[in-house]
Each structure stands twice: as C-alpha cells, then as structure tokens.
Amino acid sequence: MGFQYGENPVMSRQSGQQMISLDGYSRDQSDQHFVATNSDFQLPTPNYSLTGPITGLPQSPSFWSNQAVTSFNYGDQTSNGYYASSSTVTRNTSSSNCLHRNHVSDIPRTWDPYDPRIINNSSMVMDQVDSFYPTEEDHSDVSMSPAMSTPELGDRSDHQRYSHTSLSQSPKMEEESLPAGELDGFNQPTQFCLPGKDDSDDGGTMSREMTAVEIDEHAADEPYAKLIHRALMSVPNHSMILQEIYQWFRENTTKGTPDNKGWMNSIRHNLSMNAAFRKTERKIFGDETKKSTEWVLADFAVRDGVQSTTRYRKGTGAKKGARSNSHIRSRQDSGRRGGLSASKNKFTRQRFREQRTDTRRALQSYDFLQSQYQSSATSNMGARHNSPSTPPSHEQMGLASPYFNTHMKLEPYERPMDLISLEDVQGAYLNGEPVFTDQQDGSGYFDGLPRY
DNA sequence: GTAGCTAAACATT
DNA sequence: AATGTTTAGCTAC
Predict the structure, then answer these.
(1) Based on the number of CB atoms within 10 Å of its own CB, is A195 exposed (0-12), middle (13-18) or buried (19 or more)?
(2) Residues 314-353 of A near strand C (Cβ < 7 Å)?
(3) Average pLDDT of the residues in A206-221
(4) What is the 3-state secondary structure (H, E, C) of A6-42?
(5) Which residue intervals are the DNA-binding region (predicted)?
(6) Which end of chain A is more exposed for a tag (fewer CB within 10 A), N or C?
(7) Residue A395: pLDDT above 60?
(8) A281 and A373: one domain?
C-alpha cells in the first residue's frame, strides 16, 4: 500500500496517476470520494498497528513470531450452537497506537488521501481501517489464510505486499441502519484461539494459539457459511456484493478456484438459505433507477456468528437410499422439483406476506393493549434465552412443522412481536370463520397456505 | 440424524 | 448472463 513511516505526511499525486479503490474494485467517479494511490500514500502516524479483521496473512516465521501479533481465537461453535463471531483482532499495544474504526457510518467505501478530512485530521484516516488484504495476483509466498491478523509494519518486506485496504462498504439503507451500539463489539478485543478440543487437562476449556499452518488448514476446512460470515465480518459494514464475496473467496480460501464454478453456486446457495445473510438493495448514487444487491450480515450473526446452513434446511427428510434407476435423471428431477417448488413457494410467500401485512395492521390496533402489558412483557423478555433477533433453534421453536423459519426476513417493524407471535397462535378466526388452524400433524395452514 | 457440499432446475434481475 | 431460490442426492461423522 505504500504506507510509510514518518511524522510528516506527504500527500502528493501526480496527474494522470492511476487511482485505485481500496477494495480493488473500480468505482464510479461519484463513488470515488476516497481513493488512495498504491504507492504514494504515506501514513502520517508512525509505529502504528491495527485492530479489526485482517485478511491475508504473511506466513513468514518472523511475522508469526512477532510478539506484537496477537493470538487468534478461531471461533468455532459456541454453546448456543452458533459459530462464534471472530471479528476483531487486538494488539498488545496502547490504544493510541492502534488503528480502529470508531464510526462505521463515517467510513466511505473508498478513500482519498487528499480528502480534507484526512489532511486536516489524519488520525481519522487510519483509525478507520478495518480490513487489509492483498490483491496482487502472485500469492505464491503469501498465505491466503482468511484468518485475521495484524500486519506488523516492522516487517515491511511482508507488509508491502498489502497493496490496499478493504474498506468495501456502502452506506446501509435507511431501514438497515444498525441500532446505536450495535457494532460496539466490533472493537472489543477478541482472542483468536483454537476451539477447546485439545488435550489440555482443563477439559478443553482453555485455548491455545494456532500456528499459521493450523490456521490455514482450519480455514480450508471451514464451511461456506462460516467463510461467508468471515468475509462479511471483514468489512466495516458487514456487507458485500456477490462479486466481492467471490473475490474474497478467491483471495482467502482454497475453494475459490477458477477451474469450476461450483463454489460460486455453493456461495449463492448458502447466502440464500442461511438466515445469517440478508439481502439488501442499495441505490446506485447518481442513478436512482439502478440498484445493486448487497449481502449483509444479520444483526444476530454479527453478534453471535452464523449457524450451519443445513440447519435451515427444510426438514422433510431426504429419502436416503431412494435412488432412481438413473442417477442423472434423479438429479435432474430433484432440481426440477426444486425449481417448480421455488416458483410455487415464491408465490405462496408473496401471498403470505400480504397476509402478514394484513395481520400486522390488525395487530396495530392492539397497540393500546400491548402498552398495558408492556411491563410484564419486558420482564418476560428479560427471561429470554436469546436476544430477540436471534432466531430460535428448532427446539426452541418447537415447530411441529418441518419448516424452519429461515426466510422470515422481516424488517424490524414486522418481526413477530414478543407478545404475540404467529408461532404462538394455534388458530385464528375472523368473523367466526377459521382463518387458519394449526393441525396436530403440523400441517398448519394459513388461509390455505403452508405455514412458514 | 446432522452437517456440509454439490448439482440442478427454475425464477428473477 | 448473473444472480437468487429451492430441492435433494451424496458423503462423512
């Protein structure tokens, strides 16, 4: 990246010099308000260090043996069944020397060292670096581990390979704005250690530092959902477009191979099926008619990590062993069913959303009643095992239906109330007629539609 | 049985 | 064409 030591930042830019985006993607001019050149940006702060998820690690022993490099808590499944969120790397340095993001909303997608905000307030610049990964094609001597680390500037031979930081992020849509303090945990120190499955005599509760090799091996074995989670956690706003996710996989995993496209399919599959990943739309600046789709981590996933995608699988029970004569035909047939079902389900979901809207409107009339019970509700909520936006497990939901409530991608205002949730309702009548009932066999239907 | 990967069909953008 | 959704076969544990 060309970060250099020195008390006096030198901000020079030659005319015609190619500008790069910090996440490696070209930007529209309108989006280029924050751009750094690859070579002439000079870090005004000497002896700096970073906090935040860092991807792409030098593998040199000197790097790993450096005391300043923190240990890793390689988040694994936690007691609540989630993959732990491993969003932050900390340093054993004083906070004044650390680079950390203070305000996500302030971070532009790209940066320009000539931005007056930087020149006049240089501390703001590197305070907000969150991600750091190599982009050069030749990675032969650089570990592409997706694990997060902290490049140590003392070893510039390694460090110089980091041609840019990733500030890939776009402003969240209004309705996606995070509540205050939502990302507070992002700056909280998190240790990166091996999961406690080792032979330590504490029963595995203690953790130990991973070696670089272990991290690489571990990362290579990580499931897609976890890797996607990690990718999204590596950017400040926890959002990426699909192509950025692809690129992250190319650079940080062994899955992103060019020889086949199956891994892309798998990524899309995981994005679609895992409730930790939510789809948002962002209007393209300057052209309100165009929108780009971004994938963003759900709030609970930021806090708690991601669950396995298969957990969201429809539990109809794949008939193992029920093979047709032709494997190919079976495959095609299953896909065809999926496609047809997808279409049908899309329709039914759409109808269900309309129903939900109607239900919500009806329930709004209960606002008054809810306010009467607010205090008791609050006390009940306090007894919740999980935070309200944390999706319940199968067990918690106690659904007779095999459908896990994965794609109730509800906006905050339309989330089921804690007071009254559809899961709690076993039947409803309108004008004396049953609107829906929850049959004992679990085949609950909502106005003739399957219950989701 | 669960988790994960993968292929595939189909829909949507 | 790229992206998104869904089903389901298969393997490993």
Answers:
(1) middle
(2) 314, 316, 318-323, 327, 330-331, 334-335, 337-339, 341-342, 345-346, 349
(3) 54
(4) CCCCCCCCCCCCCCECCCCCCCCHHHCCCCECCCCCC
(5) 224-316
(6) C
(7) no
(8) no
Parent domain of A242 = 29-312
Q: How many domains does chain A have?
A: 2
For residues A255 and A188, state if they share a domain.
yes
pTM (predicted TM-score): 0.44
Q: Which nucleotide is nearest to A279 (CA to C1')?
A: C4
What's the pLDDT tens digit per position in A4-13?
232 233 333 3
Is the same domain home to A49 and A122?
yes
Residue indicated by tokens 């919500």: A360
Residue A281's φ and ψ, nearest 5 degrees, are -115, 140
Q: Could you tell me the distance in Å between the CA of residue A277 and the C1' of nucleotide C3?
A: 15
Give me the residues paired with residue A49 across strands. Answer: A98
Of A256, A290, A312, which residue sits at a domain end? A312
pLDDT for position A214: 55
Question: How confident is the model over A233-264, as pLDDT tens digits?
Answer: 999 889 999 999 999 999 999 888 877 889 99
Q: For residue A290, what pLDDT is reported?
A: 65
Q: Which helix (H) or strand (E) holds A303?
A: helix A299-304
CB A55 within 8 A of CB A131: yes
Instruction: Supply the DSSP symbol for A289.
Output: E
Q: How far, in Å, is the CA of A222 from the C1' of nucleotide C12?
A: 14
> Bridge partners of A99?
A50
Domain end, chosen from A288, A312, A336, is at A312
